[in-house]
Amino acid sequence: MQLERLLQKHGFGTRKDCRALVRRERVRVNGEICDDPFADIATDGLVFSVDDVEWPYLEHATVLLHKPAGYECSRKPQHHPSVLELLPLPLRERGVQPIGRLDEDTTGLLLITDDGQLNHQLSSGKRKVPKVYLATTKHPLDQAQIDQLLAGVLLHDEPEPIVAAAAEIVDEHTLRLTVTEGKYHQVKRMVAAVGNRVEALHRAAVAELELPADLKPGEWRWLSAVDMEKLVKSK
Ligand code: URA
């Protein structure tokens, strides 16, 4: 692929911007400066750099983010900054979108991608992708609440009861809840329906992909092939 086109595809601006980057010797291909915007570059396993920041060549960009509290999962946020602001500009310019939404005050694993098909596969309710949450509750948890969550709770505007795929008490005020839908405020509403209240919410996993322990709030990393396998196992 032509270097200029490759840079454009990876979010480095218009063709003209990309050509200028190359001509100013700001781009390296496999470690070597390349000043020809029209050079034909082999993309397989390619790593290029712009101003010494490395980028893998990726047909689609998918990252996992440790979402901190205080960010909205929207491209046009209303009251708080968008989670997309935690990503570098070229990545945002690729048109990446969060896969499903977490509330502004929810923390944890958020996938962000420009792969429309993957986004659809993982967020479509029909696929029943398990999402694992840790909810800190206001009141002590008890077995009756767990039994109700597992039997199904009726939420306002939902025709059928919503059944938790798994629910367990981690400690007196921590519930581990797995749901397969992605309804608005789902966990908070389910917990409210059993007479308790969520005071803090954290997403620990999507399908078999867990939030990496070394990824701090606000940090992101590329989704690896191993991560992808863990994600699509549930498809
Ligand atoms: N359920 C909620 O209530 N909030 C979230 O952010 C995610 C699931």
Helical/strand content category:
alpha+beta
Strand content: 25-35%
Tally of individual helices: 7
Mean pLDDT: 95
Q: Helicity level, as a percent range? A: 10-25%
Shape descriptor reads elongated
Heteromolecules bound? uracil
**The top level CATH class name of the largest domain:** Alpha Beta
Unreliable runs: none
Q: Biggest β-sheet: count, sense, barrel?
A: 9 strands, mixed
Distance between the termini: 32 Å
Give the second-level CATH assignment, the architecture of the largest domain: 2-Layer Sandwich
Query: What is the CATH topology descriptor of the largest domain?
Result: Alpha-Beta Plaits
Tally of strands: 13
Q: In total, how many domains does the architecture comprise?
A: 3
Fourth-level CATH superfamily of the largest domain: Pseudouridine synthase I, catalytic domain, N-terminal subdomain
Order of helices and strands: HHEEEEEHEEHEHEEHEEEH
Radius of gyration: 21 Å
